Amino acid sequence: xxxxxxxxxxxxxxxxxxxxxxxxxxxxxxxxxxxxxxxxxxxxxxxxxxxxxxxxxxxxxxxxxxxxxxxxxxxxxxxxxxxxxxxxxxxxxxxxxxxxxxxxxxxxxxxxxxxxxxxxxxxxxxxxxxxxxxxxxxxxxxxxxxxxxxxxxxxxxxxxxxxxxxxxxxxxxxxxxxxxxxxxxxxxxxxxxxxxxxxxxxxxxxxxxxxxxxxxxxxxxxxxxxxxxxxxxxxxxxxxxxxxxxxxxxxxxxxxxxxxxxxxxxxxxxxxxxxxxxxxxxxxxxxxxxxxxxxxxxxxxxxxxxxxxxxxxxxxxxxxxxxxxxxxxxxxxxxxxxxxxxxxxxxxxxxxxxxxxxxxxxxxxxxxxxxxxxxxxxxxxxxxxxxxxxxxxxxxxxxxxxxxxxxx
Length: 408
Prior knowledge:
Elements: E1 3-9, E2 15-21, H1 25-34, E3 38-44, H2 68-83, H3 88-98, H4 102-116, H5 121-126, H6 134-146, H7 149-200, H8 212-245, H9 249-259, H10 265-286, H11 291-298, H12 305-319, H13 324-328, H14 336-348, H15 351-407
Antiparallel strand pairs: 1-2, 1-3
């Protein structure tokens, strides 16, 4: 049956947009009138091919314009509609009308067409692995099989919301220190490349030798004035190194190793990975997925090749019948506390509850540690920048003080 996009008036002030399935354009108009809407525009919708490529005018490269926040909002809205007993196709039609981003509209449109053509919701989602992760697709598949799609969407919404809250908390905690460092670097750059060269003219007729700190500062300033563009290029090149390394498997491994060995931050990164892993594993087991398959889906969520490589051993052991706690003892980065808690959960038959509790504990520890780090980081940055800026000012004032001493 053909699909149509529509624009209709709900009342004098409110306009709604969406998609619907009808035998013909006239039937689509009749459906809108039955819904209490006044059609403004009803147009046939371009169908996607079976290979998953859109017809002209469609867009399949929407990943670049969509974010994790878009996924969380999409899940939350779909959950609300499913909880209200709105069928899936109608829910997608409503979400299509509410979507602000054209790329999100394209995604919802393709999902709608794929499901309308007889495929399952999980199969439609699996076409977009860059937006819908393996975890997301597997949970939706479980929800479809068990008839608990609305409950699974609720679990996914809670999971994505917690993940989004953590990222926002991290960004908020680091915003002020990053701002201070950026302002300090800019101030030093301006002083060395513009202000000090202007002041150096004052010392050109200085009879006696300039103090050593002043000579050093003038030399550095002269270098900055002549090579400021090269310094900016070098800084840009250094900033691009992580992006270039992440394009190859070997480069990603090196970056992952560095992340786990950064002083202070390595502990936070590891605990965040453990919290995410435990929460994901808990969600999968609670949804009814067997332990081996749960591990298979949860391990990639760690997003660190060093960690996933070690956890592959656990996956193999569990497949052979070994308990999860016993196999996790072989993993070097797993804290003994986590292994003991998993052992207790397995013995008591409440593994998913224990994993969720461990995830909450790690999340609280991360929040507390972030507060301590940021509270210490701010005064350290202020002191460091104060020493640098104070040193520059003193180096330029020393000749003037020397003149005053000679006069006296």
